[in-house]
Each structure stands twice: as structure tokens, then as C-alpha cells.
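At this stage, I needed to go through a protein sequence along with its fold in C-alpha cell form, as given directly below:
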Amino acid sequence: VQVVESGGGLVQAGESLTLTCKASGSTSTRYAMAWFRQAPGKEREFVAAISWAGTTTYYEDSVKGRFTMSTNNAGNTVYLQMNDLTTEDTAVYYCAADHYGSSQYTTPRAGDYVYWGQGTQVNVSS
């Protein structure tokens, strides 16, 4: 399974950016997916997660109300709409995926994901 992120870039504080992540493998497999990020000198942290049906979501407290994660309901592509970005959001954003039996299930735990992308850089300038 290949996981590929896109959409990173440089924006100014207060602006918006949308990240996309696609998991490719079996066309019949659907994935619970999540975003994590790692800022320079810091540990990787959870950002958001979604079940493949899009019915269950989790968000890290600092992004609630600003970030929205959604899915294309095919269970293999997710989006992270990031609004009102701050310099604290500067990081490499990683997408993770794994397949579970339930369309409602997702998890914020990094260890629960087997498939990871290479990351996309998001830089927010003040």
C-alpha cells in the first residue's frame, strides 16, 4: 500500500491550506486514515483522524475549530482543510492509513497505523 501526501507549501499566518492524502492498494480496500505532524525539534504529534466512511473523526485540541478532515467516501483519499493557520502549525505533515473491519472505526494512535506517507512540508510565516 502506498500513501502519498500533497498540498503542502508556504502560507502566511491566518491563511488556509488543504492537504490531500491518497492510499493506493487493492481497489476494494478502504482505510481509516489520520494526519500527524512533526515540527523541528519536536516529537511527532497527532492532528486528526477519520474512519473510512467519514462518520467518526478525532482532532487534536489545538486544531479543533480550525482544521477539518474529510474523506471521498471511497475509503482511500482524505483531505485536511486547515484554516487560520499560525506559525505553530509549521511542520512536516504525515498521512497514515490502515484497514479495519468497521466503517466507523478510526484511531488517533500512531502505533495503530501500518502505512505511512513520506510527508509534506507546511510552513506558516508571521
Q: What stands out?
A: The CA atoms of residues 81 and 119 lie 16 Å apart.
